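HUMAN: Mind sharing a backbone?

ASSISTANT:
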Amino acid sequence: MNSLRLGTLSISTIAFAALLAGCGAMAPAPGGKAPTGMKVTSTAFADNGLIPAEYANVGDCGGKNVSMPVAWTQLPAKTRSVAVLMSDPDGGLGLGVSHWVAYNIPAERGQLKANETGGFTVGVNVAGAAAYRGMCPPAGDHPHHYVLTVVASDLAPGALPAGLTRDALLAALKGHALGGQSVVGLYSR
């Protein structure tokens, strides 16, 4: 995420960063060793790499609307569930676009596979649908940054109600988030 300029960050992205900052530093592990921190990866793209078109929306957007694979390791102690969010801070005229809100995911799953839809709750995207919405930046724009974030929480899987937007999910996670990490991919058409 170091490649993002502050001017391109949306208000919700800044609020999300503040939420994670409020989690505080993780305590040292028993024996005095410092924790290594969460790790988030996607087999679809390398951090700051290009995202393949299949994960973009259909039609003129160039893709198949397949949700991205994402994996997480080294979660903070007491993590019970995770949330996965994908947003485009460059979209929406700089206000950001929420493409994917997934939560109530049991932490021990360790991953969501491409196009996986079962065993968790899918929240509301920018179009108002409870679904993954593939990327679709304006044709000719510079590549947009797509931030794929995993948030660890102490909430039990299934604790949060269906139908949450990105902002409502972030509000619900306040006081329950234990840490988070992102991987960023680029896409243009």
About this structure: The two ends are 21 Å apart (CA to CA).
